[in-house]
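Support request, please re-run this one:
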Amino acid sequence: MTAPVYLRIREEERSDIPAIRELVTAAFGRAVEADLVDRLRADGDAVISLVATEGGGLVGHLLLSRMMAPVRALGLAPVSVLPARQGVAIGSKLIGAGVARAAQAGWEAVFVLGDPAFYSRFGFDAELARGFQPQYAGSCFMVMAVSGSLSATSGRVEYAPAFAGLS
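Re-run finished. Output below.
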């Protein structure tokens, strides 16, 4: 019998950067999101970068980046899981850990642009985000108050400049 392999979530280390790039590219089937991660890191806008490991290898990555908003806020994107490991809650565990770290660090909110059916499970709320004016609007724009209630519920919201390069 082989020993079970356990999922571990930890902060990104400098030595992880090449593997993170490969993982993000594999997860999305293109390099655009990996380029985004690299640019956010290079611009100093990456605030929380977590990796999920199994048996010493990277299987997932999550990035929370600085946002311009009327509240102290981070943007959640991207969340990446190796294709062979998708569907087993690695992304969910990364999101939970990322939001917890954001709350511990005193951030007020985390915004996400994603599937409401998926992200609402974690407490992201499109209705709560309705008062904000993001550069990317719609029902997929959601916010979560990670440390109680929000000190503001309206105002302009902008993702880090690196997001402007997405296509």
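The chain has one domain: 7-160. Residues 134 and 157 are 5 Å apart (CA to CA).
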